[in-house]
Amino acid sequence: MASTFFGLHIGSSALSSFQVATNTTANNIANVKTTGYTRQEATLQAKDAINVTARYGSVGTGVTVTSIKQQRDLYYDNKYWENNSCYGRYEQKLYYMEQIQNYFKDNGSSVKGFSSVFSQMFSDLDTLRSKPSDKTVRNQFISSAQSLCTYFNQMSDNLSKLQDDCNEEIKNNVDEINSISEKISLLNKEINQIETGTGVEASSLRDERANLIDSLSKIVNVSYNETEVQNTYGDNLGGTNFSLYINGEKVVEGKDYRKLICESSKTKNNQTDNDDMYQIYWEDTKMEFSATAGTAGGSLKALFEVRDGDNLENFKGKVTKADSYSLTVENTSIDNIKSLNLPDKDGKITVNNISYSYDSWEAQVDAQGNIKSVTFNLSKDKAIADPDRVVAEGYLLNAGSAINARGIPYYMTQLNEFVRNFSEMFNQIESKGQNLNGDTPPTFFEAITNTAKVYDFSESAAYSKLPDGQTATINSSSNTYYRMTAANFSVNKDVMNDVSLFATATDYVKTDSCDIVDELKKLQSEKTVYRGDKAESFLETIISNVSVDTEKAETYNKLYSNLEQTIANQRTSVSGVDEDEEALNLVKFQYSYNMASKIISVMNQMLDKLINDTGVA
User: Fold this and answer.
1) Could you report the per-residue pLDDT of 486-532, keeping only the tens digit for each?
2) Is 499 within 8 Å of 138 (Cβ atoms)?
3) Rounded to an integer, what distance in angstroms lies between the CA atom of residue 220 and that of residue 327?
4) 244 close to 215: Cβ distance less than 8 angstroms
5) Model pTM score
6) I want to staple 37 with a disulfide (CB 3.0 to 4.6 A). Which of 6, 31, 268, 443 is the partner?
């Protein structure tokens, strides 16, 4: 049966339990302003009853605190991480798209862009029409033509530097992922050391881990799985096995974590890509980490979209022939040599999920430069095994990365395509004239590389004279308009040094004749030059694309920012500390503690009466 002092035991259990509850509330109040702190709650439970030899059979034995638990809702945690990943992606993307948009700005005064420079060039050309023999006027036009080249050179340089910035930030993101993953694995170990076999929850360490996942979710998509550790009999041992996934791939399991490494790529995706672009691999398996897959997200995905985004307009074609060291494709997605964005060497191609690198390529083109077929000469260490050769024929070949976003490669390609088309049309008209010396003028617009190699596109001029139905073979090093990019677009140095070399008429004897100038002026607004439109509309076309992408990034950035606040508020309503609620709890537990004290006081009086005042006189 219950002891005479049983009531004191019950009162004592109440005192200690409500003391713990009050201390827990005090801890919540103390951390009301602590970032990432999760509200704790003492779980009170009636102690096991005991049997007594009386009709009522059993009596309660008081109260106990079974645990102090964090109050978290995993649903809101997951929603927060999902949204934070989207927010991180569009916040990062908006930052870079605004920079690209600024590069293309043209307000005609403080910022002179394409429209201003292009209009000035044709204004000077119009002036030249009235004074075709005036060397001062000629020099003015040629200088404005070089200003147009300089504009494209600077645009290419700006985009190239921005690509380098993205590349470095990718490495910074990977370093941050590795740092967070390592910290989480160490926390997992510490949490299990505290919780295994004790039933005590390592609340502060769990808060720290959750805060790290919050930070990680802005870089990549995250998810986790936490299961209780059990013995062979299915009994819980108190510890847990915590696994963390990024972009669907496991990065942390318990006290172990996997490291990502950045390696400078030996291949290029696009002709104008910078060297040493980083690719991400798992250190343990050497497998590539996909930062742009459908399950990917966060700022890392945005960086790849900006750095490598080609709007899925990469080179593609159907494999018609596969030898050990070559692949030939037809029905190509890019059908003209002036639109080609393939690297001349060290390019990456993929067939049936197998990647190869090539040393060079050859193309069959007609008189208009239309591509009939392309043969890739593979690197000697990338021979095609016989089974793969059979499989390769009939499959689709993809060159580059094929990312569904308009990033730096996309805008670089547009710049290249414009200068190639415009230069070819300008040079073709100019080649029909005679300069002041009575000679055929040299190529006006040419490509001058960093090594001072000059391309005058003599092979393009040669295949342009092919009879209908015939093709010519060119390769990645041929002297064609493929070699021209926005980076090397230039006016012929000889023409700049001797303005008499520029032709304004088909007959130099007729000094007042300007038929060549008249034809050149049509390039401004009468002839189709770029994407089915006139040359002067180039900026409008590009700006419309940039504006759409920037506006989209801005819209989604605001959307996910607002959602983040909404979800954070919902999350805080469960796990955050509410001052009013804690104040009520403090009063409630104080009252309960006072009542427990009253129990002790009453029991003390009863026992005093029993012991001191009861007995035989």
Assistant:
1) 999 999 999 999 999 999 999 877 666 789 999 999 998 878 777 77
2) yes
3) 36
4) no
5) 0.88
6) 31
